[in-house]
Amino acid sequence: MAIILEELKRPMKLDSIRGKEGEAAKAYFAVLDNLITTQSEDFPFNGRNRRPPLDRVNALLSFVYTLLCHDVCSALEGVGLDPQVGFLHRERPGRPSLALDLMEELRPLMADRLVISLINRRQVSPGGFIVRESGGVTMDDETRRVVLGAYQKRKQEEIRHPFLDEKVSMGLLPQCQALIMARFLRGDLPEYPPMRWR
Fold it and tell me: Superkingdom of the source (predicted)?
């Protein structure tokens, strides 16, 4: 990851930047399995897949990413930005490219950690998933309720925002970052400070 970040400091074309983002995502997801410390046999993770998700972890990730995407779209619209017009994600009809761009910095904290915690704390179980004939994996209604409740609870947790230097609930992070992005685009900030956390 450090090498990729260093390479991104050089000027490069947008497609090259997208390629580096893809490399970073692959490296990130390659180690995510190591964080599953309980139920690892029932929740194996061999990388990201979707449409449809082919395992329980990807089913959880896809669902929580969808929830986060809705929150980010609302936040962007709330500050007058069009979620469909992004920087890095390619624009396609119906695709919220800017929301997907902004989600990149929020996913590890708001979504990935939640999914890992749900598994490690045994709040979800292998029996709460359905394997379809197509091979796709979905959650049953009870598991979906558990995940929704945990997501709402997660949004109430407070963290110190690194740029604002004040405590905010995680549920406000999309609004904070959308507002910061709008200020940057209007020229009120010299650069966009992404959400960085430890």
Answer: Bacteria
